[in-house]
């Protein structure tokens, strides 16, 4: 088959090349590789990947891991998310961000002479703005939790109020960081009840707690529990009725198939950029997404910095400039809104590369793929005796809650002995029991991985 981008794929050229180097076929070039580990044409129809289909990068990676597992223990991706998630990172990302132009010049202190770097950051802002349907994006924060803390401080500056409403099931780690941010400013976080059957915000409890002294209402979308709340439109309307800001914390890949925060009336959208090509990295560095709708007061109160597009003085060429830099290292000094974001520029570029590689259709396909896999896993787990899966009945993606017949910590410990890292125990969080666990499934989990998890839990339960 001739490939339009590879001129040497033309058959007569290949034959001439083989003749010059003295071999009869392409297969003969691989004669030093043992037959047992080669994928030959006559074996394609016996492989689960299908006959005659090209392999994706992740499929090649998993195939190699399967081969290595013959001499070592197989590695199963962790079924654990809740804020950062296991995703596949294309090799192209590492190749690009490890270039010296980006790796050693990760932040533009002498901004206008770093045109290439600033263009990359401008593209990150533009891509995220399109994904979230928000109008202004900075570049960028440390992670979701610090972006949340900064958004609450920003809401206090804009509204002059100090109270915040959040779901009682929100990510406890994010909540802890947010409380640390607002404590010196006498800020206060108030929990709003969540329906124990669906996982949606209890709108009646929200209505009873919102008042004229609320600075902002914060909602996770999806929730920490993975549930996609159906009340997000109404929550925003209610917040605005009391002149409070509406802050949405989002998981970015799911935004490809969910209604984005900009279309839901969000004043501020924050989130974790880690799924966009950053991997798990032993805990960081990650990337805090921070976006606002266009409003002069909101934009001027944004933390961090914004890269803008302009032209050279004579108008002949495009040029990039740092149009907002409210960090204390720059011109704002004591009036700075934040002193963070420096070392996340490289991560922002990685995310820009990731979004560009997948494109609109690729992100949609990926999000659907994850939705189907997470639902398959939840259904398989529901077939086990004494297991309720999903525990919360609202629509979900990526993460979902499961109630086990025994302690989640016991199940998790025994799974770990089998080389499986599974879930986040929920006991002690909100109203969850010790037998409740938050499970995660993404594109890196194969059907066999999920089936292996289910069989392992079944064995543990039945012992």
List the helices and strands and how they pair.
Layout: H1 11-21, H2 57-68, H3 91-97, H4 100-103, H5 115-132, E1 136-137, H6 144-159, E2 163-167, H7 172-182, E3 188-192, H8 203-209, E4 214-221, H9 232-241, E5 245-250, E6 268-272, E7 288-292, H10 296-300, E8 305-311, E9 318-325, H11 345-382, E10 399-403, H12 408-417, E11 424-425, E12 436-440, H13 447-462
Parallel strand pairs: 2-3, 2-4, 4-5, 5-6
Antiparallel strand pairs: 1-7, 6-7, 8-9, 10-12, 11-12
Please explain how this structure is put together.
By secondary structure, the protein is α/β, with parallel strands linked by helices. It folds into four domains: 1-32, no CATH class; 36-75, no CATH class; 91-355, Aspartate Aminotransferase, domain 2; 360-462, Alpha-Beta Complex (Aspartate Aminotransferase, domain 1). The chain is built from 13 helices and twelve strands. It has helices at 11-21, 57-68, 91-97, 100-103, 115-132, 144-159, 172-182, 203-209, 232-241, 296-300, 345-382, 408-417, 447-462, and strands at residues 136-137, 163-167, 188-192, 214-221, 245-250, 268-272, 288-292, 305-311, 318-325, 399-403, 424-425, 436-440. The protein has a seven-stranded mixed beta sheet with strand order 1-7-6-5-4-2-3, with helices on both faces. Strands 10-12-11 form a three-stranded antiparallel beta sheet, covered by helices on one side. β4 (214-221), α9 (232-241) and β5 (245-250) form a beta-alpha-beta unit. The longest helix has 38 residues, at 345-382. The radius of gyration is 25 Å and the shape is flat. It starts with 10 loop residues before the first helix and ends with a helix.
């Amino acid at each position: 088959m001739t490939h339009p981008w590879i001129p040497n794929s033309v058959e007569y050229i290949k034959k001439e090349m083989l003749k010059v180097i003295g071999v009869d076929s392409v297969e003969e070039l691989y004669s030093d590789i043992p037959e047992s580990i080669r994928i030959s044409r006559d074996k394609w129809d016996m492989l689960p990947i299908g006959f005659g289909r090209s392999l994706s990068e992740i499929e090649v990676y998993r195939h190699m891991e399967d081969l290595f597992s013959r001499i070592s223990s197989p590695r199963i991706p962790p079924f654990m998310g809740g804020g950062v998630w296991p995703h596949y990172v294309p090799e192209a990302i590492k190749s690009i961000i490890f270039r010296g132009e980006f790796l050693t010049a990760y932040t533009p202190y002498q901004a206008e002479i770093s045109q290439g770097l600033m263009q990359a950051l401008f593209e990150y802002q533009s891509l995220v703005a399109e994904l979230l349907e928000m109008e202004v994006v900075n570049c960028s924060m440390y992670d979701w939790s610090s972006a949340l803390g900064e958004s609450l401080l920003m809401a206090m500056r804009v509204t002059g109020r100090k109270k915040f409403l959040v779901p009682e099931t929100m990510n406890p780690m994010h909540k802890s960081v947010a409380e640390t941010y607002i404590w010196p400013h006498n800020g206060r976080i108030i929990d709003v009840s969540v329906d124990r059957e669906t996982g949606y915000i209890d709108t009646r409890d929200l209505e009873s707690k919102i008042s004229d002294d609320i600075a902002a209402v914060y909602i996770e979308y999806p929730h920490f529990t993975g549930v996609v709340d159906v009340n997000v439109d109404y929550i925003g309307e209610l917040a605005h009725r009391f002149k409070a800001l509406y802050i949405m914390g989002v998981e970015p890949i799911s935004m490809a198939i969910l209604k984005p925060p900009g279309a839901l009336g969000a004043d501020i959208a924050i989130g974790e950029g880690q799924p966009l090509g950053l991997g798990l990295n032993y805990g960081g560095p990650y990337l805090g997404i921070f976006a606002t709708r266009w409003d002069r007061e909101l934009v001027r109160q944004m933390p961090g910095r914004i890269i803008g597009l302009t032209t050279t003085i004579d108008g002949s060429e495009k040029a990039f400039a740092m149009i907002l830099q409210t960090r204390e290292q720059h011109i704002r000094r004591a009036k700075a809104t934040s002193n963070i974001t420096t070392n996340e520029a490289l991560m922002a570029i990685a995310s820009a590369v990731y979004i560009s590689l997948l494109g609109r259709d690729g992100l949609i396909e990926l999000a659907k793929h994850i939705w189907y896999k997470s639902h398959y896993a939840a259904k398989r787990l529901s077939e086990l005796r004494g297991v309720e899966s999903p525990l919360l009945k609202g629509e979900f993606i990526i993460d979902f809650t499961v109630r086990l017949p025994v302690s989640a910590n016991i199940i998790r410990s025994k799974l770990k002995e089998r080389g499986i890292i599974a879930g986040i125990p929920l006991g002690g969080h909100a109203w969850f029991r010790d037998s409740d666990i938050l499970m995660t499934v993404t594109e890196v989990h194969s059907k066999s991985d999920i089936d292996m998890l289910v069989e392992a839990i079944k064995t543990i339960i039945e012992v």
